[in-house]
């Protein structure tokens, strides 16, 4: 079965940047999905069960922390790894991310190589 990665960000160019950073994983059989808001993300997570989600915090309809809380604490989908991406590097945000069950917290602007390394590590590639 192939691995699935969901990229969630309300900004098109950021979704594309993340996908470009990870594109060599396609050769390793990884499928990509994208969502532009929290509601769309939640629906895709429930239906597609991605192995890894790169999740922006500040989004319309439902923010990333809410999505993460629903996935991890309400639906108990612990096999879905969530990396929260946010422009804020404040400790408080990291703490909020931990409280809602995020597996990892990365700040923007991110290093594409680091993104790829983390994805490889989580997906065991």
Structure description:
The protein is an alpha/beta fold. It has one domain: Response regulator (Rossmann fold), CATH 3.40.50.2300. 43% of the residues lie in helices and 20% in strands. The chain has five helices and five strands. It has helices at 12-22, 38-48, 64-74, 91-99, 112-123; strands at 4-8, 31-35, 52-56, 81-86, 104-107. Strands 2-1-3-4-5 form a five-stranded parallel β-sheet, sandwiched between helices. Helix 1 (12-22) crosses helix 5. It is globular. The protein starts with a strand and ends with a helix. 31% of the residues are buried. The model has no long low-confidence stretch (mean pLDDT 93).
Gross CATH architecture: 3-Layer(aba) Sandwich
Strand order of the largest sheet: 2-1-3-4-5
Order of helices and strands: EHEHEHEHEH
- Estimate the helix proportion, in percent: 40-55%
What sort of overall outline do the alpha carbons produce when their principal axes are compared? Answer: globular
CATH superfamily: Response regulator
Number of domains: 1
Keywords:
125 residues, alpha/beta, Rossmann fold, 43% helix
């Amino acid at each position: 079965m192939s691995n699935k990665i969901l990229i969630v960000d309300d900004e098109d160019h950021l979704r594309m940047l993340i996908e470009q950073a990870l594109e060599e994983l396609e050769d390793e059989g990884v499928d990509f999905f994208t969502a532009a808001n929290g509601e769309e993300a939640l629906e895709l997570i429930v239906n597609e069960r991605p192995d890894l989600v790169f999740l922006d915090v500040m989004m319309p309809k439902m923010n990333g922390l809410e999505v993460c809380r629903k996935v991890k604490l309400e639906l108990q989908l612990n096999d879905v790894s969530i990396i929260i991406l946010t422009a804020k590097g404040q400790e408080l945000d990291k703490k909020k991310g931990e409280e809602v069950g995020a597996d990892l917290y990365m700040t923007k602007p991110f290093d594409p190589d680091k993104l790829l390394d983390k994805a490889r590590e989580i997906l065991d590639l």
